[in-house]
Structure formats: C-alpha cells, structure tokens
Amino acid sequence: MHWIDLNLDRNEASDMLPVTDQDVLDAHGWDRAYWILLDEDQLDDAVGIVGHPVGAELHEEWEHHSVPTDCGPDAHKTDDSEAAATHDGWVYALGSHFGGKQGPLQIGRHWIARWHEDALPGVIADATLPISVVRDKFRLHRLINDALAAHGDVLVPVHDALTDAFVTPARVKGEKKGKAWASRVRDGDHPLNIEGAAFRPNGNLLVGLRFPVTRAGGPVIVELAGVPELFTTGAWPTVAGVWHLTGPGSPGEWMGIRAMTTRGDDVFDVICGNLDAVDKPSVLLECHPEGRAATSEHWRFSLGGRVEGGAVESTLVNAFGEESRIEGLAHGPDGHFVYVVDEDSRVHIKFLAID
Length: 355
What we know:
Blueprint: E1 2-6, E2 13-18, H1 22-28, E3 30-38, E4 47-53, E5 63-66, E6 69-70, E7 81-87, E8 90-95, E9 111-116, E10 129-130, E11 132-135, H2 139-150, H3 160-176, E12 193-199, E13 205-211, E14 220-225, H4 227-232, E15 238-246, E16 256-264, E17 267-273, H5 283-287, E18 297-302, E19 310-319, E20 326-331, E21 336-343, E22 346-353
Parallel strand pairs: 6-10, 15-19
Antiparallel strand pairs: 1-22, 2-3, 3-4, 4-5, 7-8, 8-9, 9-11, 12-13, 13-14, 14-15, 16-17, 17-18, 18-19, 20-21, 21-22
C-alpha cells in the first residue's frame, strides 16, 4: 500500500470521490483526481481536490488544493461535511445531521448541497466554485426516523440518555426560539449520523448511517428518492427503503458506515467502523460501549435491482488491522482502491490494488 501526506489547510478528512468530468482532468493535466471533503468546518471552507499529473508514478507528485467556494445566502451555515456522491455530472454533499460528542443535535449540520463538476475553474485559485445549498432543518431527520420506526425491531432501541443529550435539548432550543423545525424533533427519535452516500442506477441516493445500527451490530442504509429534484423543483425527497447489511459487526462489536462508493451496476463498496472516535468523551459510546472497538473494514454488497429495503448480504474486501480512521474510499481508473485516512491531524491518501 502506497501513501502520501496532504496539506489541505484543515486536515480533518471526511470523504472523497473521483472527479468524473474528463474536461476538468484535461484542463489540469491530470489522469485522475478526487474531491475531498474536510469536516469539522463550514462547507465554504471544506472542499478540496487532489490531482495526479499524467505520466507520474501513482504514489508521487500529487497536487492538492483547497477549492474556493461560494455557498450564496447559506454561506457559513453548513457545518460538519461528511458524505459525498456524484450523479449526472453533479457532486452532492451532506452534513452529518448529528451533533457534538456531548450533543445536542445541531441545526447547522442539517443540509444537502451540490455543485457541477464542470464549474471547477481551470486555475483553481482564480475563481470560486458555486455551490447550491438546501438547509433541510430537520426534515431529513424526520423522514428517516419515521422510516426507521417503520422498519420494526431490527434496529437498536432508542437509549434514554441519547434522547436526553441529543434530541430533547435540540427541540427545546427550537421551541424557545419559535422555530417551525422544532416540531420535527421528537422524543423517541434516533440521533442520526450520516457518513456515507452513493447513487443507485435509478437515481436514488443511498445514505449510510454511522448510527444507529441494527441489534446485530450491523450498518444501516437509507434509500432516498428525489434528491436531484430537491434542487430543481423544491420537492422534498421520500424514503424508498431501509437496508441493513449482514456481515459487518456483531452484537459485541457494532459497526456503522464510514464511507460509501459505487462503480455502477447497483454494486457498492463501504468502509465500516466504530460508532465514534475514542479520543474524547462521547455520550454515544458511554451509552453503547459495543460501538467503541471496531477498526476500519472494507465491505462490498449488491442490491441487484432490489426495491423496498431489507437485509443485504455483504462480502469482506479488506481489513486494515489496527487502523480505525479511514474516512473515505474511491475507485481508481486502473483497478486501485483509494482511501483517505484522517490521522493525528494529518490527511493521508493510501492506494491499494485489489481486483
């Protein structure tokens, strides 16, 4: 496995995905490039790109840039960028919809955004990338929680301490300020943590949850229909299904989604791992110590045109030993998998050849 260090100003990586527009690659003299999301900051300052010059060795000479952006009227209102996916030339990014390690849920993390790849300027420092932002104000929280409740007893039950730390304070704060969104936050809701995303061939968006997980300790994925239309007609997405993976995790070692990608054909690769970082006190891990120990693993599953959700068998592709900070993965053009690793305030990119 090759690796390189990056300097992207704010070295807290959260996701990566390939640049698919050949004109963008040609304009910069790259044979491949990847968008990088940097979390723990506003989306305005969280977009990076790394490109590999044509003819260079895979593990050498990578260029890395922070991309100037313009989020319009929603500038500086979009915290904690966590998941990204491409569809029809557009890059979609999502906030975590979660909160800090001690709670509560935070309105600034509830958003979806997109930008078109061909808007990346030929000289990155000379212009800004326009980004359209929709602040969903707990609408996805409500939609997904209603769908999870309808999924029956497959999921872990809601823990009272998580309600007290994450859900109730968010609702009370909204009520005190007279916010309409307060009614969308209800006791009995799971505090959602979105960390992966990928589009199906039918245009639906799979959203991978780091939390909650199933009673068996496995990851949960929610399928959203109508995400592109949110930006064209203003109609809100609907939940088309709830999926849960069999294979990753166990009742004593829970695993959630850390990243997701696809090469098409309704086949998806995911990074699974622990439910929260262990370097600081976490209410989630205090409530669910089963979510503490898991290290990063790469799994693959296929939906094969299935609809309406349910259990999905998955296959282990790669385990990373003691590594627990893999935050993104993508396919390379020559069969390589590319991983971005957030470690000790540095960002690594690692390359692994897998058939």
